[in-house]
Design brief:
The two termini are about 25 Å apart. Strand 1 and strand 2 form a beta hairpin. The protein has a single domain, classed as Alpha-Beta Complex (2-enoyl-CoA Hydratase, Chain A, domain 1), CATH 3.90.226.10. The radius of gyration is 20 Å and the shape is globular. It is an alpha/beta fold. The strands form 2 sheets. The chain has a 6-stranded mixed sheet with strand order 1-2-3-5-7-10, with helices on both faces. A 4-stranded mixed sheet has the order 4-6-8-9. Helices cover about 50% and strands about 10% of the residues. The protein is built from 17 helices and 10 strands.
């Protein structure tokens, strides 16, 4: 067990126990590594089989956030060292096992409570979004910023972005727009808004609850505790809700190129001065982001609309391994995290310049020999 993942079992009432998983790498805001994934996954499997363990509580030891995403710097090093190896062995292990963990959380038989305080991005959203009880705080910041590194919103993004209010999923994927806790509630990424200072009290209430042996009753017990502490209705709407009409108008269209043009033009037309900095940051990310990623976002939502969750993860595993084999992902990580010049040299100069054949390659079958079902 890595010291970056801490696990414990809290003794509760009626002879029951609560499992607690603490992400414990504050230096990187718990950037997920393969060893961390391999610590969480078997722990969840074991607890799922334990009849006396009634719920799981996943949180962070860091005040900065739950999880900043995957440790893509490690992946970059493997892409450089194993340049000629296809599929890249480390990337295949990492993404296969990360998606297996995310899918386990989605399908978990017992309640999983995730405390999504602070930064929750990329792979952190993957840990949170499939849980049965998803908590944000007024200090939460969620995002899927993959357009900045030449990847795409994975970890089930083809599933949960498609289930946001109309237009919001595409907007968030294309711009990497940062969402606050109220945005997470509005878009369906979270269920409750609680004050971060209430975490210890909530854990104590969970410990003292009258736990039963059936899952349905225990889900209700948790929901009652969290609903009683929910402060979400007391806060003003977030940026997604404020800009919903504008987002829906701009993302409605028959082609990505037309949608992207409208979004880019909107930067100079923003009239809501109170929120224009948020809007401008989102549009800047689209303008400076990877043109191929914009197409991947558009296509993953189109192609994923009718797929099951298992099929979504299979598609995304194929896509991500193709991204590893194509140059933009490597170049994006180099520019952001390695050389830090923030000046990536993308393969195509604009969204309109990306040929259909290039995007189609990212959906071609990749022999992963990995079963995620």
């Amino acid at each position: 067990m890595t010291d970056k993942i801490l696990t414990e079992e809290i003794q509760a009432t009626n002879g029951k126990r609560i499992g607690v998983i603490t992400l414990n790498d504050p230096r990187t805001i718990n950037a997920l590594s393969l060893e961390m994934i391999r610590a969480i996954y078997p722990c969840l499997l074991s607890w799922q089989q334990d009849q006396d363990l009634v719920a799981v509580f996943l949180h962070s030891s860091s005040e900065r956030g739950l999880c900043s995403g995957g440790n893509i710097r490690q992946l970059y090093d493997s892409m450089i060292s194993d340049d000629a190896v296809t599929p890249n062995p480390m990337a295949l292990e990492f993404f296969s096992e990360e998606y297996q963990l995310d899918q386990l959380i989605h399908n978990y038989e017992k309640p999983i409570i995730v405390w999504g305080h602070g930064i929750v991005m990329g792979g952190g959203v993957g840990l949170m979004v499939g849980a049965s009880h998803r908590i944000v705080t007024p200090e939460s910041t969620l995002a899927m910023p993959e357009i900045g590194i030449g990847l795409f919103p994975d970890v089930g993004g083809s599933w949960f972005l498609n289930r946001m209010p109309e237009g919001c999923g595409l907007f968030v994927g294309l711009t990497g727009a940062r969402m606050q806790g109220t945005d997470a509630l509005f878009s369906g990424l979270a269920d409750y808004m609680l004050a971060h200072g209430d975490k210890a009290r909530i854990l104590k209430e969970l410990e003292d609850s009258p736990w039963q042996s059936d899952f349905a009753t225990n889900h209700k017990i948790i929901a009652n505790i969290l609903n009683n502490a929910d402060i979400g209705t007391t806060l003003a709407p977030g940026n997604l809700q404020i800009h919903l009409t504008q987002i829906q108008q701009l993302t409605h269209g028959s082609s990505l190129v037309k949608i992207a043009d409208k979004l880019l033009q909107s930067r100079s037309e923003t009239k809501n001065n109170a929120d224009k900095n948020w809007w401008h940051s989102a549009i800047d990310a689209l303008e400076n982001g990877c043109p191929a990623t914009a197409h991947l976002v558009y296509q993953q939502l189109q192609r994923g609309r009718e797929k099951t969750l298992a099929e979504i993860f299979e598609m995304e595993l194929n896509m991500v391994m193709q991204c590893v084999a194509h140059p933009d992902f490597r170049e994006g990580v180099r520019a952001l995290l390695v050389d830090k010049d923030k000046n990536p040299n993308w393969q195509h100069s604009s969204i309109a310049d990306v040929p259909d054949e290039w995007i189609d390659e990212h959906f071609e079958p990749f022999d992963t020999t990995q079963n995620l079902s």
